[in-house]
């Protein structure tokens, strides 16, 4: 048997919320169990998509770095962006993807600050692309199962 983590977590969440929590007293403890069920449900959703959205986001940020070539950025920033743009994912564990994402997002902040002060159409277009990606990154993280 190979347990499906998403299904197991969803089942546990459902049992806690629908079967166990209504039977528990006092009401505070029942509410705590219901909240735990909600967190388990959100965890099930995130488990299923965790690597996918991180890989998608890391690739999108690397694409933005590629667009920055030739904008007259400071040499150290341009070199770092070029290095990061050409570094593909090699470890698909969520923890490793998070480390890469943190490094990419830190560099994206620097790039964003730099392009906001460059008075060129290419910089303005990249600035808009960065804002679009930031909005998309928020959507990637949105949980459909709960209002957290």
Task: Write a compact overview of the structure shown.
By secondary structure, the protein is mainly α. It is built from 5 helices and no strands. It is 75% helix and 0% strand.
Give a structural overview.
The chain is mostly helical and 148 residues long. It has one domain (5-141). The chain is 75% helix and 0% strand. The protein contains five helices and no strands. It has helices at 5-20, 27-67, 75-85, 94-115, 121-141. Helix 1 (5-20) runs antiparallel to helix 2 (27-67), helix 2 crosses helix 3 (75-85) and helix 3 runs antiparallel to helix 4 (94-115). It is elongated. The mean pLDDT is 92.
Which SSEs are present, and which pair or pack?
Elements lengths: L4 H16 L6 H41 L7 H11 L8 H22 L5 H21 L7
């Amino acid at each position: 048997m190979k347990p499906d983590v998403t299904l197991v977590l969803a089942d546990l969440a459902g049992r806690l919320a629908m079967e166990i929590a209504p039977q528990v007293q006092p009401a505070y403890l029942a509410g705590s169990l219901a909240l735990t069920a909600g967190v388990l449900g959100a965890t099930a959703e995130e488990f299923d998509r965790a690597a996918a959205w991180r890989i998608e986001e890391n690739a999108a940020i690397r694409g933005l770095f590629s667009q920055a070539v030739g904008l007259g950025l400071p040499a150290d920033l341009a070199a770092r962006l070029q290095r990061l743009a050409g570094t593909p994912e090699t470890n698909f564990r969520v923890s490793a993807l998070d480390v890469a994402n943190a490094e990419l997002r830190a560099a994206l902040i620097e790039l964003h600050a730099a392009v906001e002060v460059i008075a060129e159409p290419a910089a303005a277009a990249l600035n808009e692309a960065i804002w679009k990606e930031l909005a998309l990154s928020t959507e990637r993280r949105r949980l459909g199962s709960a209002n957290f």
